[in-house]
Structure formats: C-alpha cells, structure tokens
Amino acid sequence: MYIEPLKKTRLADNNRCGQLTLFTTGHSIEEIIELQNKGVKIVSFGCDNFNIFYIDSLKEIGISIDVISDNGLKITETGINNIPVISPRDLFKTSNDYYFIITLTDINYVNQVRKQLLLNNVHNFSILTLDMAFDFDSCKIKNLKPIFLSTINEIYQDIDFTANNFDAVRYVYINPIKWWYDTLEFIVSDYEKRGEKNLELLDIGPGTGLESLLYQKLLGCNVNWINLQELKATYSISHNPKIINAHKINVQYGYIESDNFTGEYDIIIFTDIIEHMAYNPVLTMKKLNGLLKNKGYLAISTPNRKTTKNYSSWRDMPNPPEENAIDVLNITGAGHVYEYNAAELEEIFAESGFKVVFKKETSKLQYVLSKE
Q1: pLDDT in tens, 142-172
Q2: Which of 289, 224, 281, 283 is nearest to 254 (CA)?
Q3: Which of 135, 220, 263, 312 has minimal Cβ neighbours within 10 Å of its Cβ?
Q4: CATH number of 2-174
C-alpha cells in the first residue's frame, strides 16, 4: 500500500482541517500519471457532492479524469462537466484499459465499491478520502510531516488493503498521532535540549509501532517492544520481522500486568493501554516506575472518561493473580475494561510514585510523568 496526502482544505463547518489523501495499492502519483501517458484511462468511480472537488484536486497534481462511473448514475450524452459517464459493467469488460480511483465520501460505499472491483478482477486501484486531519503545519517538531509519511508508508508497504478492512487502515493513518502528539512534542523537545544520545525506549503494546518509530527517527532511540504473543494474529504489524529487523528492535513477549521485565529506560510509551488493563493499575504503574530511569519520562494517553465502565471506581478492580492473568483476554477481548477521568489518573500516578510534568486534557488525556 502507498499513502500520499494531496492537499488540505476546510471541512463544511469551516473550523476543522480536512486532508485529501490518496491510498493506492502500490502506485505513486507519478506512476499513475505515467499510466495515463501510456493511454490508460483514469476513472473516477463514484459520484456524490464532492465529486467535482475530487476531480479538480486530482487535476491539480496532474491526474486528469477521463471517465466517470457510478452504480447509480444514468448514462447521459453530455456526461458530467463534459466527462463521459460509462457504466461499471461496461468498463469491467476491458478493465485493463482503465485505472480506477474511488471518489466517494461515505466509507460504507467505498468498501462496497472496493469489493465490487475485486469481484471483477480489478486489483490495482486507489481510494481518495477527505478526512479531519492532524495539522502538521502548526506543530513544532521540525520535519515531522515527511518523517511521519515515510514511517506510515514503511509500516503499510506490505499490507494489501484490498484484502483487509480499508477503514481500519485509514483509521490508523488519521487518528493515533492526534492522541499522543503533545507528549511526543514535550519529550522530543526536552531531550533535544539535553543533547543526550543512545536513549533507551520501551513501547508497551506498540500496535503498529508508529509512535516508537517516530521517536527513533527524531531522537535516535534504541527501541524495545513488549508485545502480546496471544494477539499476534490480530496485531500482526508490530510482529512484522521486516520492521523489527530494519530498526533493530528488541522484542519481548508477555503481559505487563502479571509478567516481570527488566531494564532501565529513558522513555516509556504507555499510550492507550491503561484502559485495556484488567486489574488495579497501581501495581503495574509501580512496575513501570521501577523500569524508568531517574530523569526519564513515561508518556501516557487514554480516553477522557465521560461515563463509568464495568466498575464504579478503579479501586474496585481486582489485583492481578500470580499467574494466568492473560486469561482475562478471553473475557475482555482486549477491549476497554475501565476508562478514567483526570482526577482518577492523578490519584493512581501519585500512589505509584510519579509526578506529572505535562498534561493536556481534551477528549483524550495526555500526560508525561517522571519519578517523584
């Protein structure tokens, strides 16, 4: 897969940054233009209120739409904006003559068309999306946008979104950096001022590995991961040997709530993990305190709780058993067990021997902690 942002725009409410992004099965924009120069016709598949905006945006980067197609459109002699409209069924008869770009805003329709293309033996196509995006232009970390894009493309280069849920891939591309950017900025800025080298970083539950790989590229960290072997099939990206070997990542397998780990780390990433924990979090937080160096930082983020979930208080959560804590995954499915508000988290931090050095509270709670 190849992901390339095209341009920013304002969404309908005029308060949010919209990012137009092209997801492809492997072609870069330059390669799509080259296909067109060789006589392949470019098809805009899907016609809704944003269709003309999509067509104009593609034209700005050198891709001209030759044909419009949509399952619900009537064939007209004049077409749309002088672009001919052709039935998908007719296009599929000679599909090698066309390159399809799905241009629909409703993700349900996008996935329907994606399946339709595959069923008609079309495996090489793109999807153009318009989503609320992270505003890289306002962030303070130098060159973060190209570093982020190169990293996200490295992570997904061997992932074929034609065989997976495209919405899940799009979700990972759009959302996670919003959840923990502020802690990233704080920690990177501080370590750049310190000028320290050979930092040791521990990422607990790395997911795609995006966050720890950004730290590595920005600060030159040695990266360590703690992964759940039991979730290997579900979160296969962070088990990808190609990524692990390329970045010399030391991977340990285990369950942070019950297993013991050794080492000393300058940075510990614990983002969007605590809400998944099945047991009283203080013992685990004390364990992380013991792994953190005296001048190190622990980055934590979690949803900002609006309602209680499963327990009336985190203090009602059981302590972890001495063994077989992993069995709880059979009950929770690795989902959210308890969601916290700021006051609760700060009680837990204090009882675990941490002090808060940075905090941001929105729909997400972001903290940077250090030892007391």
Answers
A1: 899 999 999 988 988 877 766 666 777 787 7
A2: 224
A3: 312
A4: 3.40.50
